[in-house]
Amino acid sequence: MTTDTPPTPEPPNAALAGPVVLVAGARPNFMKVGPLQAELDRRQIHNVLVHTGQHYDPAMSDVFFEELGIRRPDHHLEVGSGSHAAQTARIMEAFEPVVIAEQPSWVVVPGDVNSTLAASLVAAKLGVRVAHLEAGLRSRDWAMPEEVNRVVTDRVSDLLLAPSFDAVDNLAAEGYPATAVALVGNIMADTLLANLERARARPILVENALTPGGYGLITLHRPSNVDDPDILAALLSVLGEIAERLPLIWPVHPRVNSALARIDVPAGITRIEPVSYLDSIALQADARVVLTDSGGVQEETTVLGVPCVTLRTTTERPITISHGTNQLVGTDPHEIRLAVHRALSGEIAGTRPDLWDGETARRCVDAMLTYTAAGTAHH
Ligand code: UD1
């Protein structure tokens, strides 16, 4: 009994005066700019990719470009690591002449990393429209550098591309006008759904003697969990208990290496090098449970329907708890054990949130064109 649905009206196709500049800098940015670059290309909208160089190891950067077919960056700022102030300042200094030379119609900044903040400030001060992809998320934990980045980036952005209704609610509560906000869904779902089959074909499970449903996955990189060796050792001790029942595999973020030099990793936890995008999805998809402090992994496990235990006290992605498969437990050993028990006993089920459907890049470009045509300004 399906009836013909009327075609979605095409947004006004305002000619964009200059290119769309996409900014990526750190690992969680790359899978967000990929679908946007592809959609802009599909519509023959001139776009330029800037890599800030915040992440630079091949395993933290190049492999994502190769696997996801992202074009080589048009500009590479090569800023590297540093303190927050130094890294942010270096990105700003290097990005400013790029914006002046490119004269973009839009600068699109994804996520909440230092590259996001730095690029949005530069564009806003040069009077160039900024679109924040993944706007409106709030952990309300001001000690997280990402929370500062989110709030400031939203404030200097013209168009707020929100992944979920809770993000839209946050922006409304902060006084952003509805004309500045577009609910577009989760762009990571675009990448995940398009690549799931390829990920499942990867040999990463076999290479690590893992069987589907027979292991757990750890990812850890939040400064609050990994910078202090004592805190990390306490966390690993409870994970070690879990590993006595369920083998755990842990791709180790480079940030963790200095703390790890001073502590022992319990038996049952297998450390491996950072994994590529496809391998990360492959490991998540077949895990019995994922233990993480990442934001993106909370979302990917929700899309995959895999139980996730988040080793943090706050999350900026509450929809992964209310709708998805996530449990927020902090670092209390008892809470971690309970959450893992619930996950292993099959108590955790979830649904995929609205608009996490693989069509987010299309909605982002629609929103940018509509905004351009309307000539809106909310500042
Ligand atoms: C950054 C983001 C964080 C994101 C994470 C994903 C900020 C404030 N933080 O954290 O939100 O979740 O990326 O990975 O932007 N390092 C390397 N090789 C690299 C990159 C980093 O060895 O290619 C090491 C360096 O020692 C560096 C440290 O990791 O000092 C931290 O890197 P940085 O980019 O400052 O922050 P992340 O912890 O990666």
Please characterize this protein's 3D structure.
The chain is of the alpha/beta class and 379 residues long. The chain is 44% helix and 13% strand. It contains 16 helices and 13 strands. The strands form two sheets. It has a seven-stranded parallel beta sheet, sandwiched between helices. The protein is globular. Uridine-diphosphate-N-acetylglucosamine (UD1) binds next to helix 1 and helix 5.
Keywords:
6-stranded parallel beta sheet, 379 residues, globular, 44% helix, 7-stranded parallel beta sheet, alpha/beta, binds uridine-diphosphate-N-acetylglucosamine
Q: Find the structural class using helix and strand composition.
A: alpha/beta
Secondary-structure element pattern, one letter each: EHEHEHEHEHEHEHHEHHEHEHEHEHEHH
**Major beta sheet, specifics?**
7 strands, parallel
Q: How far is it from the N-terminal to the C-terminal residue, by CA?
A: 47 Å
Number of strands: 13
Task: Enumerate the strands of the largest sheet in spatial order, edge to edge or round the barrel.
Answer: 3-2-1-4-5-6-7
Percent helix, as a range, is 40-55%
Average per-residue pLDDT, rounded, comes to 95
Characterize the overall form: globular
What ligand species are in this complex? uridine-diphosphate-N-acetylglucosamine
| Radius of gyration computed on alpha carbons | 21 Å
Please work out how many helical segments DSSP would assign.
Answer: 16
Strand content: 5-15%
Uncertain regions: pLDDT < 50 for 5+ in a row? Answer: none
